[in-house]
Specification:
By secondary structure, the chain is α/β, with parallel strands linked by helices. Helices cover about 30% and strands about 25% of the residues. The chain has a single domain, classed as NAD(P)-binding Rossmann-like Domain (Rossmann fold, 3-Layer(aba) Sandwich). The chain has helices at about 10-20, 55-60, 80-95, 120-125, 135-145, 190-205, and strands at about 1-5, 25-30, 45-50, 65-70, 100-105, 110-115, 115, 155-160, 160-165, 175, 190, 210-215. It has an eight-stranded mixed beta sheet, with helices on both faces. A two-stranded antiparallel ribbon has the order 6-7. About 40% of the residues are buried.
Length: about 220
Amino acid sequence: MKILLIGGTGNIGQRILKEALDKGHEVTAVQRKPEALELKHANLTTIKGDLLNETELPSLIADKDVVVSAISLYAGLTPEQFKQAHQNLINALKKQPQTRIIAVGGGTNNEIAPGLKMLDNADIMKNIPDEYKPSIFAHGEVQGLYENSELKNWTYFNPAAMIQAGERTGKFRLGNTNLVADENGASSISFEDYAVALVDEIKNQQFVGKPFTIGY
């Protein structure tokens, strides 16, 4: 597969990049600062690009099988820029509907009851530090952008409630909109296993046109 990866230096993006290369995919990494990606690989091409520049997106997407967006609000984007970047991607992909988009989502997009997302639950949100809330609500809005777009070939991959560096075990559970938690109610996943599942989804195409999630 020919993959266009956006945000390949972040915590999740760098794991996705490694997993995709290890599985033999051909990856073009788009970076605002290409020099920040030091990895060299025969199947990796690094180019300069910016999702906020809508005019250059069609040429970046051209001839790619799938676009993986691993951009993060913690990489210097404001919530409005984050949403605009995804809207720009949606607009470009409408003109190239054969190209799939898989976007890294947010854990609080998951539901704890039918129709009730974590981000809409006041008891949960009051325990979350204020500095994280702009990112949380932006992810909620961006999932809505994809759900309400005319795109058919999209996937929004929301992690577990807790995601952090850990081991690549290859053992996890996938879900649709409901939070995946263990018998004690804990919902977690490593960056490494999240990347495994995302790259597997490129081949499996199990969650096209919908969100999905993961947990141990």
